[in-house]
Amino acid sequence: METTNQIVDLGNLLAFDCTHQLSSIPSSREELVEMCLQKGTELVQAIANDLFNLPSTEDVDGPIVKLPPPITKLPREKHLPKPKPPTKWETFAKMKGIKKHKKDKVVWDEQTGTWKRRYGYDRVNDDQDIPIIEAKSTDEPGEDPFAKRQADKKNRVDKQERNRLQNLKQAAKVGSLPSHIQLAARALPITGTQTAPEKLSKDDLGNVAGMAAAATASGGKFDKKLQGEKKPKHEQKYRKFLPVAEGKGTGSKEKEQTDRVLNKLISKNSHEVLNIGKAVTMYNLKKEKKHQNQKGRSASSTSSKLKPKGNIQKKLTNKKGSSKSNNFKTKSKRSA
Amino acid sequence: MMKVKTPTKGKIKRALEKRAPKLVETGKKTLILQGTKTSGVLNSVLTEIYHLKKGSAVRYTRKNDNVRPFESGGETSLEFFSLKTDCSIFVFGSHAKKRPNNLVIGRMYDHHIYDLVEVGVENFKSMESYSYDKKISPRIGSKPFIVFVGEGFENVEELKHLKEVLLDLLRGEVVESLNIAGIDRAYVCTAVSSNRVFLTHCALRLKRSGTIVPRMELVEVGPSMDLVMRRHRLPNEGLRKEAMKTSIDKPKKKEKNVSQDAIQGKIGKIYIPDQKVGDMKVINKSKGVKRERREAKLNRDGHGPASKKWKESS
């Protein structure tokens, strides 16, 4: 502050002459500008006087001066950051007088004789690494203790996530949510369903649209497109080519496939390859003819009582009928 | 049902952190935009303000028909733009028969309008009309000197308000330390009459004077203009109190164990607890050896450290 009527605010590099009055409003523009610049130079000099007298430190680029904080107060751009409310655990810990201790990131593992992480992948005393769990008298029969351990762990993780969400909600109420976190509302579950339906993403919707298009006979080729609708991502059939060369795993699939096709073909026509009913009748007929021929030659007069001719014929007709019906059945099956 | 949503990428997270309210604010950004109708003068005023503020300004060049800062309901899209661009000062130009070459300068608090000043632009002279030595032309983003002359800025309510708004618009970033070699510009505002302010932008020429303080010389580089006060709206008292809160009541945490040295620069002290080398459990896990060999070695003397312990105890 140089004189009484000059206010210098070094923090803003501002000078203000509050008493100066233009003596007489000049007639021409040039004169006015001239006068203003003259007064301006005076004030700039006043700022410079204060500025250059500040203690400075030499730098490569030039002398650097530490400015005092600005005197003229200007409003803030945004509100002051609000303090985060303590989490439920923090309030509890404070009540109980529990203090935080720093822990090492790695811990000596007695079992393996190595240093291992305290938390995370390949951690010390991992629940899932235990090979044997001793049975207790309280154990329920038919319960898998390993699966139970895993489920318990999952429950604990879920519970922690719920607690975190609760704390974040509290912080959001006060308006001190961290800048990178947003609490978004999830879609409400439809009454009667157990779980909340996941909100479909843009990609998901696109996939559904593609699937619906592919359901038409032309694969959606001639469908009317809506404005802004894109082509389905995959227009053709998904074709899989099996490896030509024989090998392990997928290599032997080629053989399997051909085997399957052959088996199917054979099983379809297997009844035609060997019809047992027909074969039996033919065999019986042949046998009978032989028999008749022999009897006709040796004793034809006495055989009238002993002849089992009618009976045999009856049986034959029966058998024929049954075989025929069998045939029909198979045919009907095929048609179905 | 609530879901925690966090950005997937670090870049987004950093951008959000930059926008979050801070204890000590860095600087206000300026949004420059226009209404449905502008004049040639106003166009060049807006672009030249943009040039002066380059680096901390956003220029919208489309017509905005629903921005009327003084009317109720006319500020919604302005507030949205402010939120979108993270600007807290806006300069809005419009040209009408009733108010030709109209410039509305306003400030935002929490992306809501804080106060407004409306001025008319007269006698505008653009940057191009000035001829000067280009060596002294101010560089982008340098900290300006600001000079206000005239008792009008003290006595007249409107001009007092205009002074505050102009200071906020022109001062740039609040800095703690300043490189003296970098000062090269000054704004001179003079209250010509009770409703007219002459504003000009000058370059500084530093001349030797024999003392430490150089002799300052102002060279007009433009733009220069007359601002005629029209309407203005002061912030309401509650909001003003809220916005004037500073971080002074909450001073910065003192930095421990760090000191500055002229030669070595930043020096930090580190306290290391006693290293208990005797208790250290060492395993040979060098990565230079192939894994099979390393594992074989581990297996061979797998109980190495344990056996050593045994020997000591026995």
TrEMBL record, chain A:
This is Ribosome biogenesis regulatory protein. It comes from the Eukaryota. Keywords: Nucleus, Ribosome biogenesis. The keyword tRNA-binding does not apply. Residues 136-160, 216-262, 283-336 are annotated as: Disordered. The keyword Nucleus applies. Residues 295-305 have a biased composition (Polar residues). It is found in: Nucleus. GO terms for cellular component: nucleolus; preribosome, large subunit precursor. GO terms for biological process: endonucleolytic cleavage in ITS1 to separate SSU-rRNA from 5.8S rRNA and LSU-rRNA from tricistronic rRNA transcript (SSU-rRNA, 5.8S rRNA, LSU-rRNA); ribosomal large subunit biogenesis. Involved in ribosomal large subunit assembly. Residues 145-160, 221-232, 251-262 have a biased composition (Basic and acidic residues). Belongs to the RRS1 family.
UniProtKB/TrEMBL annotation, chain B:
The keyword Nucleus applies. The keyword Secreted does not apply. It comes from the Eukaryota. It is found in: Nucleus, Nucleolus. Residues 28-238 form the Brix domain. Residues 282-314 are annotated as: Disordered. It holds the Pfam family Brix. Keywords: Nucleus. Residues 292-314 have a biased composition (Basic and acidic residues). Transmembrane segments: none annotated. One of its GO terms (biological process) is ribosomal large subunit assembly. One of its GO terms (molecular function) is rRNA binding. Belongs to the RPF2 family. This is Ribosome production factor 2 homolog.
